[in-house]
Every structure is written in structure tokens, then in C-alpha cells.
Amino acid sequence: MVTITVITITISLLMATHKEDTSFFDHTLTNIRGDEVYMNEYKGKVILIVNTASKCGFTKQYEDLQRLYDIFKDSGFVILGFPANNFGNQEPGTDEEILEFCEMNFNITFPMFSKIDVNGPNQHPLFAYLTNTGNQDYTGGINWNFEKFLIDREGKLQRRFRTRENPLDESIQISIQDLL
Predict the structure, then answer these.
(1) Among residues 56, 84, 98, 108, which one is catalytic?
(2) How many other β-carbons are positioned within 10 Å of the β-carbon of residue 79?
(3) Domains of the chain listed by start with CATH number
(4) Which element (helix H / strand E) includes 49?
(5) Could you confirm whether 102 is annotated as catalytic?
(6) What is the pLDDT of residues 85-118, one digit of tens each?
């Protein structure tokens, strides 16, 4: 009984330590062109992560995301787009089709990544980290496309914004400015 308790406590401490040591910069992903990208390449930048979809009622947010990127990109800000097909089959295309759609319809110039799962049993570890990390707003699963995660220059999640919060909303812009 004592051995089982000690093992349980040890495992719990190791898991807690690992979770605290994990940061945004510990992750590696594939961009939409197929290249591996280490998130530590974004150290020193304020980052807005968005799960995106091309056939969603909120797809028009791409336009405002690009405008937001244009406003702040020269101040050390970047948006990272992560297409996901987790909600209503609203991102069924290939990476090539998604990239073409974004460039042709919205002139997207911020970095886009390969389509991944942001929820469910195949959830990418980055999104497991983002949805379980404490911040001043809330934790838990992503409810829909175009949820937003604001990361500070040190790689810590600071804010989350739901789908209905437009990228150009004052609350998002002020939160970005506060971190810049």
C-alpha cells in the first residue's frame, strides 16, 4: 500500500512538473507548405494562434486577421493560422487547396500551418497545451472555428478569445498592445 502511494505521488509530481515546464516554444509543427517549424523561432514575438476553416460562417475573419497582422507585424506581432476540420467538416480541403483559398480570397501573408486536429482523440499536442493552460479567461476545449489564443513574448498563454470575438475588436487589439 505504501509503495503504491509513493509511486502515485511520484507520477503525479512528474506530470505536474512536466506540465509547468511545457511552453509554446517546446512544440514543432509543419507549415502549410510542408516545412517543419520550431515554435521557438517565434521567441520574442507576441503571437495570436487561430484555428481556421475555409467553409465556416466565420471564414470572413480571415480578412480581419490579415488587417490585424498588418497593423502590428512591424512591432513584433505574428498570427499563426491552423486549419482544422473538427467542426462540421468545414475544412475538408488539402493543405494546397487551403493555401490557395487563403491567398486568392484574403491575400493572407501571415504564417499558415498544415491542417491538424484541435479537439478530440487526435488533438495535436500544441492544442492540448493551449486548451489546458491557465490564463485570465478560461480553459477547456475549443467550441468552434476561429478561436484565438494570445501568447506573450516568453511563450506563455495570456488570453483566449471565442469565435464571435472579431480579430479587430478593441479588447483583442488592447490585449496585443499590452503585450507589445
Answers:
(1) 56
(2) 24
(3) 24-179 (3.40.30.10)
(4) strand 46-52
(5) no
(6) 999 999 999 999 999 999 999 999 999 999 999 9
